[in-house]
Amino acid sequence: MSMSPHRGPLRFLALAAGLLVLGACSMTPGGGRPTPIADRPIDLNGACAQSDADGFREQATLQVRDNAVQSLSWQLWVGKRGSCRFEQGEFRQTKWRPHIEMVARDGSGCRLLVWQDSRRVTLAHNGCERYCTPGVYEQAWPVMFDPRSGGCARL
User: What is the pTM of this model?
Assistant: First the structure.
């Protein structure tokens, strides 16, 4: 699937918005009191493989049942400059609700985060430079799945 050359900035904005949601609170209208993010079970049989004209591409599979990760394999390429790779066996799940969190077994502090909104299931990384070719981590975007089809979500 070919994507827009502006995909990187859009992915960054989607990740930033998602991380704000994961900040665990939003403001209620008029009340100013924080409310927790929606806690809905994630069930996904996801497979996403796509690339854009700039050579950015990703290949990811993610299977989740009732917020428990069953399998995960994710590789993304930042043009011809390098790649990042994440495999389930290198992580342990430490959080199930309201979002999924997996922590690297190597003690590096790398975390994989999975959350769902009404339009997509997002798989993102945080602090995972060690899993990437040097110099490409800042351009490594999250992968987003369509919760209905399991394929790549459209932005």
Answer: 0.77
